[in-house]
Specification:
Layout (H helix, E strand, L loop, with lengths): L7 H25 L1 E3 L2 E3 L3 H10 L4 H6 L3 H14 L9 H15 L7 H8 L25 E3 L16 E3 L15 H4 L13 E6 L14 E6 L2 H7 L1 H5 L3 H12 L2 H10 L10 H9 L14 H11 L4
Antiparallel strand pairs: 1-2, 3-4, 5-6
């Protein structure tokens, strides 16, 4: 898992794009209700009051731009005053789903997943850092993946809240992984709230023959320190156990003093006017990004950084 940085500019741009259609939909629902399975549903007094509240002042903007650390407390408050909103079978929940999901999130002419993900500017899945987040142009058939950290079926009023929308890979966003699991019950930590030192890799040799075969991926074990809820839901320990070959290669580099030799080799290029920064040298030694602000750019970068530091390949 890698930390996502708050992006106020992207969040503001997101709100600007959806503000007008969202407000118009709320007004239409207040006037006409919705139709569900051919049956008209009108908002009751409590929901009507909440929807009018969203149309007042900056209240809708505050909902869409809720800070990551404020979402949980907002949910707790909403459950206290609007318990019906959390019952997916209730009319109130169905109306909220229609407003925020069916009439906004699911409408490509209202909400562009491509624009949203490209605006956040992250290249790998923050849940696992194993896979790229693929998005091309709007005309290509590569579907961007966005996970609702707080599932839209359970929390429809948060379906368009910026920091609840997490770019993710198809694996982590799949029904057999997180799906509609409730992060409150599962103890998950939002990528915007996790710290880098909460998510650390280490390794343990399983035999003395680690140098014997570059192909023996079973000569080491990967150990992962992370919030247990994230490990369990995203099956991170099991998945990273499939990639111990990356660690084996780093261990071999450390045993043959690869980093010292290669670092000295690159330093010689200064004579020819080609100067590498320490960060660039570290990146070439590991074969992956090492700067904390760049580890999202390539899969397994967090694994490489943690193991590389442990082995002394980088400082």
């Amino acid at each position: 898992m890698i930390k996502l940085k708050e992006n106020s500019a992207a969040a503001e741009a997101h709100f600007i794009k959806i503000e007008k259609p969202l407000k118009q939909r709320i007004k239409n629902v207040l006037k006409n209700g919705i139709k569900k399975d051919g049956n008209p549903i009108a908002p009751d007094t409590i929901l009507r009051g909440y929807l009018k509240h969203l149309l007042t002042g900056d209240n809708l903007k505050q909902l869409i731009l809720l800070k990551p650390e404020s979402i949980h407390s907002t949910i707790a408050s909403m459950k206290k005053y609007f318990p019906d909103f959390f019952n997916s079978d209730s009319d109130s929940s169905k109306i909220l789903y229609n407003i925020f999901v069916a009439s906004c999130y699911d409408k490509t002419d209202v909400f562009s997943k491509y624009d949203f993900i490209s605006g956040i500017n992250i290249d790998t899945c923050p849940y696992c850092n194993r896979n790229y987040i693929y998005y091309l142009s709007k005309k290509n058939n590569v579907k961007p993946q966005i996970d609702h950290f707080y599932p839209k079926a359970k929390y429809p009023f948060l379906a368009m809240t910026f920091y609840n929308l997490i770019p993710s890979c198809q694996t982590c966003n799949g029904l057999e992984v997180k799906g509609e699991l409730d992060p409150v019950r599962k103890g998950l930590i939002n990528p915007y709230l996790i710290e880098n030192d909460q998510f650390l890799f280490s390794y343990k040799p399983t035999s003395s023959g680690i140098l014997g075969s570059l192909l023996d991926k079973h000569s080491v074990e990967v150990h992962l320190k992370a919030p247990q809820g994230n490990i369990d839901v995203f099956k991170l320990q099991e998945l990273y156990n499939l990639h111990t070959d990356h660690v084996v290669e780093l261990v071999i580099k450390s045993k043959i003093k690869y980093s010292t030799t290669y670092r000295d080799y690159l330093e010689k290029y200064k004579e020819h006017g080609l100067v590498f920064s320490e960060n660039e040298i570290d990146r070439m030694i590991l074969g992956n990004y090492t700067n904390v602000d760049e580890i999202h750019k390539r899969p397994f970068s967090k694994l490489y950084v943690d193991i590389g530091l442990d082995l002394g390949l980088i400082k």
